[in-house]
Amino acid sequence: MIRRDRTRTAGAPRPGRPALRRHLTELGFGVLALAAIVPLARGALLPAESRAQTPRARTVVTDAMLRPAYPANPCRAGRVALTFDDGPDVYTPQILTVLRAYKARATFYMMGKKVAARPDLVRAVIADGHAVENHSWDHPHMADLEPAAIRRQLADTSAAIAAAGAPRPTLFRPPFGNTGPAVNAEARALGMRVVRWSVDTNDWRGRAPADITATVLGKAAPGAVVLMHDGVAASASTIRALPGIIDGLRARGFCTSSYAE
Ligand SMILES: [Zn+2]
Q1: Cα(85) to centroid of ligand 1, in Å?
Q2: Is residue 139 annotated as part of the catalytic site, yes or no?
Q3: Distance CA 188, CA 136 (A)
Q4: In this structure, what CATH number is given to the domain that contains residue 137?
Q5: Whole-structure pTM value
Q6: Which residue range forms the structural domain that includes residue 14?
Q7: In degrees to the nearest 10, what's the CA dihedral of 218, 220, 224, 225?
Q8: What is the per-residue pLDDT across 25-66, written as a single tens digit (0 to 9) for each?
Q9: For tag attachment on the chain, is the N or C end more exposed, with fewer CB atoms within 10 Å?
Q10: Distance of CA 90 from the midpoint of ligand 1 (Å)
Q11: How many domains is the chain built from?
């Protein structure tokens, strides 16, 4: 209203110009307002991290996927740890839905910058009884970093996880499995052990769910640690593979758990 009044009283050199200028001014403000509102609305609907990595999660979980053949852990053959890296991200809630239906526990190795963006997902993971551990701030090759940078990657991530409401991590899984004496020493100084995995599903490469399941069942052994991902675009395939992985492990007598030991 104020803008319109100002336009009307601004004066005009020739008759007819004020009305034209008023319309142009209103049009201009309209376009500006639209330009400001559209990105805001889009930002409100999508979490910050999902714009950077996976634009939006497809709904992958179906009712048929939530009917376990073995709802309890047999444990005759030993433990197999289920682990998920690079989250929390847009597919994490669907991973939680499957694990909940199967009463299976897992460990989530999280990136600090994603934890800072979605602390609500950290709390959801913890609330379901899973473990949250450290997977660096932004996924660098840790062994290439200076000691101060290594310390920042580790300390900032553990601090973000604790600030989100999870227990302070006691394990660090280096991105790419890339570690060295300096990384190990910095992790130890922060109260963390450096761990890797024993079964690499390569799920992040976009493999078919049946292939991911076959890899896990083919390499399952007492104390095995299965590496999967909840924080990549290909995590949709991981979700589809998960029911077959858990049922298959239990059919072979294994417990599924957060940690192998
Ligand atoms: Zn990773």
Answers
A1: 5
A2: no
A3: 14
A4: 3.20.20.370
A5: 0.79
A6: 2-45
A7: 60
A8: 444 444 444 444 444 443 344 333 333 455 788 999 999 999
A9: N
A10: 15
A11: 2
